[in-house]
Amino acid sequence: xxxxxxxxxxxxxxxxxxxxxxxxxxxxxxxxxxxxxxxxxxxxxxxxxxxxxxxxxxxxxxxxxxxxxxxxxxxxxxxxxxxxxxxxxxxx
Length: 92
Description:
MftR_C, mainly alpha, 0% strand, globular, MftR C-terminal domain-containing protein
């Protein structure tokens, strides 16, 4: 993950993975909402979830101690916090 800052090819793969994940999130959210297809609200929600996940992983990778015993716990905590922040926007 840290190499995505300095290696353009890796950054491109990372961002492409998120681009491909977003419509999958939208389809899942639409199904969960009983919609036949994602509407604009669902697409925006999927984009927010996707961005929250990406930001959390990047934040953890760029700010955490990579050799700390709790590195995995820190990544999980960062993802949980980011999703909670995104959820507040949904409920607000």
